Every structure is written in C-alpha cells, then in structure tokens.
User: Fold this.
Amino acid sequence: MVIDKKSNTPLYIQVYENFRDKIEKKELKEGEKLPSIRSLAKKIDVNNITIVNAYKLLEQEGYVYSVKGSGTYVRKSNYDIDMPFVDGGDIELMAGGVIPLSKDSINFASVSPTPEIFPIEEFKQALMEVLDRDKGNAFLYPEINGYKPFRESISHFLQENYNMDVAIDQIQVISGGQQGLDIITKALISQGDCIFVENPTYSGAIAAFQSRGAKIIGIPMLKDGLDLEILHKHIKRYRPKFLYMMTNYQNPTTYSYSPEVKEEVIKLSRRHDFYIIEDDFLTDLNYDENKKEPLKSMDHMDQVIYIKSFSKIFMPGVRIGFMTVPKKLFKDIIKIKHTTDISSSGFLQRAFDLYLRKGYWKEHIENIKKVYTKKYNTMVRELERLKRYGVKLYKPNGGLSLWIKLPKDIDSIELYNECGENDVVIVPGKVFFIDDSIYSNYIRLSFGAVSEEEIKKGIEIIENCIRKRYKEEDNRFIPFV
Amino acid sequence: MVIDKKSNTPLYIQVYENFRDKIEKKELKEGEKLPSIRSLAKKIDVNNITIVNAYKLLEQEGYVYSVKGSGTYVRKSNYDIDMPFVDGGDIELMAGGVIPLSKDSINFASVSPTPEIFPIEEFKQALMEVLDRDKGNAFLYPEINGYKPFRESISHFLQENYNMDVAIDQIQVISGGQQGLDIITKALISQGDCIFVENPTYSGAIAAFQSRGAKIIGIPMLKDGLDLEILHKHIKRYRPKFLYMMTNYQNPTTYSYSPEVKEEVIKLSRRHDFYIIEDDFLTDLNYDENKKEPLKSMDHMDQVIYIKSFSKIFMPGVRIGFMTVPKKLFKDIIKIKHTTDISSSGFLQRAFDLYLRKGYWKEHIENIKKVYTKKYNTMVRELERLKRYGVKLYKPNGGLSLWIKLPKDIDSIELYNECGENDVVIVPGKVFFIDDSIYSNYIRLSFGAVSEEEIKKGIEIIENCIRKRYKEEDNRFIPFV
Assistant:
C-alpha cells in the first residue's frame, strides 16, 4: 500500500482509497478479512486512529462490515456500473450482486419492452407534426407542471381508461415514474419520518425514500393485497407519512388488490390522515376479461397520489409520465419540480400529446397485449413442468413477470448464480425484501425482454439447475403440495 | 382562526396552516407582524409551546422571520405559481414577488433565447436521422450515465472548445443544469453542512442546496471574482463542503473571474479539500476577442465539478446537459442519477450527439453571437443615457444580462413595481442576495427574450420611471460619479 505523507489528502483518506480501489477491482473479494488495525498501522507506520477512521469510512460507504471481536470484512459489491445496459428492472438485479449480462444471455430480469413492439411509425409522425406545427416553440421551456394541452390529454386519458376524474390543475408531468418518487420524497419525507411499503417491493422506491432518511416499515403482501391486520397494528404504532403501493400486478409478487382491501386501505388513509402513493406501471396489461382499475379511481378525498409510468407500456426512452397532486401539496410540488429539473422536455410532451389526441393509444395497447398474452401463456405452460420439483407458481393473468416460490431447500441466490453461469439471468427474490435476511426462496421471472424461443430455452436451463439440486438432495427432499 | 382539537392533525400544524394560507392569499402581507406567542395562545386557548412550534415551522418554511426581542414578521412571498408561463430566468422574478407577465409586456427578466434563433432545421434533421438509423432502439433506456457515443461527443466538445481533458467515464449526462445541482445536493449535502456561494447568486441553486438543509454562506462577488480575503477567513471558520460559482458572466452580476482569482480558488479548494461546483451556461457568449475559459480547464486535481447547461446557448426545451464527475464520486452519482429519474431521454441524447458530430455547433454559436452582440450593443447604448441620473452600468462584453446599480435613493422593488405597471418587467437585485435585507438598489436587465425595438421602447420606459423619481427628489438628490 502506497501512502504519501506529503500529500494534501489526509492519510486516512489515502488508506480508504487504497482499500476502496482494491475492492472495486475485486482484488479484495466479498468476505475477505482486512488486516487488523494495529498490524496495518505498524506496517505503514501511521497512527492506529488513522486506520480506524479509514475503516469507518469504508464501512459508511458500504465497502466493508465489521464483526465485533473478529474484524473487518469485505461486503458484497454495490451496483456494477460496467453493465452492458441498465434499466429500471435490471437495477434490482445489479443491487443483488452481479453477473454482467452478456450479449447472448437470456434476460428474465428485465420488465422493459423490446423495440419491435414500440409504435415508432405513429410516434415519429407525431414528432414530425409537432416540429412543423410549433417550430422553435417546441423547444421553449414548458410550464413547470407541464405543457397545458398535454395535461388536458392526460385528464381525458384518465377519464377514458379508468373513469378517473382529475382536473388538469392537479396533474404534474414528470420525467418518468422514478422522478415522481423523487419529488414525493422531497415533498413529504424529513429525516426519521415513518413510511409504509409493501414487503416485498420495488428497490428503486426504497432507494428514493432512504435518500432523505425515512424510516421504512414493510407490510407483508398477500395475494389480495396488504396484510390488513398488520397494517392496522402498525398504523397506530408508527403514524406513517404515506403508504407506497402498486395496486395491480405488484412488483415483484404480481398480486393485485381485491376491491375490499382497496376500500379498507383508502378508509384507513382518511381516518389516520396519511397519503397513499400509488405507483401504476402495469394496470393496462390484463390478459383476461377482468380489467383492473387503479386505486385512485376510488379516491374521493384527494388521499391518493397516483404516479403513472409509461416505460413498460409505451417506450422507456421517452422519459415522460405524470402524477396527480392533492390540492394541499400543489404549490410545494411545483417548487420541488422546478428545483429538480425546471421542467420535463416540452418537445416530447407535445409529441406525446399529439400521439394521444390522434387516438393511437387504444390500438397500441391492444397490440402489445396480444404479444404479451402469447409470451405469458408460454411462460406459464413451460413453468408448469417445474411443479414436480416442488416449485409453486402464481398466475396473475396480467403484467410482465411471474413470481415463483422454490422449495425451502433451494436458495435463490445459488440458483441465480448457477443460471447466470449458463447465461440465463433471473432475479433472486431477496433483493425486493426490506429485511433481506429472510425469504431466500423466491425468484422473479420477467418476460418483457425475452422471445418465445428464449422463454422455452431459458426455462429448460432453469429446470435443469433445479432438477440437479433436486437429485442431489433427493433423499432428504420432500416436495410440498 | 379555526382550530379543531379533535382532528388528527397536531394543533401546531393547524396553526401553521392557518398562517401559511393567510400569507399565501396575501391576507397577511410582507412585513406584517404576527400576534405575540402568549396573546395568541391565550386567544385560541392552547399551550404557548404550540404557537412556538407553529412559528418555528413557518420560519423553516420561509414564510416568516423573527427579530429577537421584537417579534415574528411575514417574509416576502415565495414563488407565485399563477404566472402565465415560467422559465429558469423568470422563476427568479417569481421569487421576487410578482406582477404576472402580460402577452405584450417587455420582458427584461428572461435570459432564455427566443425561438427565431433555434437551429430547428439542423436539429430536426438529426432527430429524423436518429429515428431512421436506430428505429425503436432510440427509445430504450440509455445507460444511467448517458448514451456512450454522446459522452464521446461531449468529451470531444470539451477538448475542442475549452481544451479541457475529460474522459467519457467522468461525464454524467443530466436533464439540464438544474438537475446537476439537484444531484450534487444529494451527493454532497447532509443537514447542517456548510457550503459557500457567490453573493449575489442564482436563486435556483439556493433552493436546491436548501432542500437538504445546507448552511449557506455568501461570499461577496467583486468585478474580478470572489472576495478572496473574506473567502480565506470563512474557509477556516466554516470548512465548506463545496463552493458554488459561475466563472464567466456570473448571474446576476455579469462579472467574470480573472485568471489570478481562478488560480487562487483552485489552490484553496485543494489545500482545504472542498469541491468547486462550476455552473457554466454562458461561457461561449463573448462579444469581444477575449474568449473566456471555464475554471475546469485549469483543474488538474479533479477538484472541480463542471456543470454545462445548454438552455441559454442552444434550446431550453431539449433539457439535456452534462456534468463532469470526480472519480471519487462516480459510483455515488450513478446511483443518485438512477434514483432521481433512471436516465435522461435516450432519444434526445442520440439526436444531440448526431447534431454535434455533424459539426453544426460552431456555426450555431457564431450565429447566436451575432444576434446577441447586436442586442448587447443596443442595450449598452440606450442605458448610457441613464448615467445622468446616477445610474452605474457594468459592461461585461458578453452574456445575456446587464447588472445595473441605481442611486441609493431609488429602491429597486419600487422601480420594479412601477415598471411592471407600465408592462416592462425587470428583476430587482434583491432576489439574488442571500441576505435579502440589504442591496436594495440593483436591477438585472436581460436581453435574451427582447427584440431590438422592445429594448429601445423598454429602456425609455425605465428611464421615465427613474427620471420621475429623480425629479421628485431633486432637491435632496446628489447623483454620484
């Protein structure tokens, strides 16, 4: 280790950087032990306190963890930023710890659609028309809350698709759903505030809420929605600022709320005066006759902040979505949006507006539903085979993922690693749980980015990995019914 | 005041909301005194501490300020969101208090360019080519840090325009300069951290830094840069996390840093280990031979985080800019960008990339400089007349604004109001100062959004407003030289 005692950089920073680089270059691997404070201090001839501070910093930055009386060890690595590409789905995978995707790997991790189903022609036409119609005005700053005609289209869109009544003054255009979470975090969370989330849930939301020091409480997710008993208990105890939920085809469980649970949750939010953040990115993708509705449709007291993302049902790269804003919060949200990025691209807002006004939407949704229904059915058909190994499968009849429970004996991280070595990428359930020490035996398989052929080939590989373990553990293995 | 003691909303919140609404509805005006704690507590029959907490919250939220031994007073109002339109320039005006802009008012408040000078044809061509070349891929998620070929173009752009050496791995694409400030705030500021800003400075930056509870120290801005004496003193005292500065044609003073002051600031940041956030949005607009260079060009120790906005020199509605990231911060910034909005629009990144590769940039800058030089000269010529009323004018020979000092006797807010009544919108200097109690006699006149004719007409109106006051106060008025 090279330490420059003449440098302006404090010694403990230099020591910190030395270890950080070794860990990032994987010269020091997960679980490896760092030298003891005394021995290292002696070796490079510095004060013990220098090493103590360096190790402290490494721990703060999440590179190491210390075990009382034993020593300091290297943590599992953070996001690997050298991934070939990254999207809202894959980041969860990255957080999980990570084999980079190779070009020809089968990616069951991404919930994002693939370019073939993008309505490029229609959207291109809209883009062109906007340029011809608005000329340079298309590139001025739009209003902070969004280009007004676009907000009109959105209000109409909500009425038509979910019979939802939202005035254009209560619509805030955002640069994708994640920005909605960022803005809400800034508007509602101060250090130490309590908020509720479904457990398991979307890790990108957790990251946003944590960024302002929220105390995050997970409420177990059941097949018909949140566990109301536990919700009741925790509300009294924690007085949450808000509850974050995904009403339909929840991520990762794919469960949808029953009308009864929806009713109850809204009632509670009114009685105990907390907001509900409804993150809706899949409601439109039902593959049976049972069309889902957002919670917001039942909200008559302005309790629900509804965030709509188009990344999974339109095109991720457009980065345009919207949220509904309770009157009480409107002024705050405007200020926060301005401080966050002034406004979302006026050009793309105008194009999206025109796209909606031309009535392309309904047809587009029908098209992608056809494609996804086919993939969904193939997924389910192929996965049925795995039941014989004690694998449990929930059928949401919608959305872009399947949530699978493995027999207790099979650890999802091990399975994830073995699949990875065979160029099949799955998401171990662990990364979605608040308390990641439990629930080691779930996996999420998404079919947004895979073809029919890949589905068949990929699930066969997954099956082999499971069968192997099944054989190995034959004698003590009891498949459960 | 109506207080509901049965409600779930804590009493002090109810009191807070009562005052907040009165202040926002202007029922309580700037400078008005709030009732004393005791009298109010008695009147609505609550604890003193309830009122104390309510007043504290009002102060935190910027609605009031308290004067020791005297009482609590209403502050000047925050953003008024009922403005017909809003941009990065006008928001400062809004913060100032505010007459809405009418269609035919002459707007010296906006620093944004007008559509006539947007390179629409070339950019449209780039947009088209991207759609034909990349098809649906144009609308996939790009990498979090930005579409790689675009980062290559940026690296080349920096080399060519400012002989700045920045590797593509140290470039983070952002959705406009303001997002750069938001990301840095998240990366570097925790509650109570000290940061330095130029005084006066851009109010949008202050809003971002305050959003995470930074303690903001203003360093006076002199004609050749920061007041080094005071900077030295304050560094020892406050140990800042970073210094926020605009090296060339600073907003609002229009001053540019001398090479000497630049050198010294960089030295200090190295010696005392704080970052420099360089916000560059005008460097390219010099109207004499003296081409300016960013501070970043002199940075060999990775001390400077350089934020480049294209809103004022290209098109505001594109919402694409970039920042350079010190190696130490790279992983953090990536995570924060992802949590903020996943990534900036891949489509616009690809189009901007192509636009740069086709070499349109140089010609574009030459074009807008021609237009702006003409406006700048007209501004200066017309404003020369005002000297006879004791008005002092600084000539930056670049940028998009002029910073004007009125005689002490003329208050900028009064002048701003009177001009407003005559459909001329100026920005009172007050809104740029950290301590808004002083410096009442500066105004900023920007010429981004006004035509030659409007400049002449507008300045005549301003002159009349000043002359009137000059006449009125004839006898006691001594114009200073």
About this structure: Residues 78-99, 475-481 of chain A have pLDDT under 50 and may be disordered. Chain A touches chain B through 72 residues (CB under 8 Å). The radius of gyration of chain A is 25 Å. The longest strand of chain A covers residues 215-222.
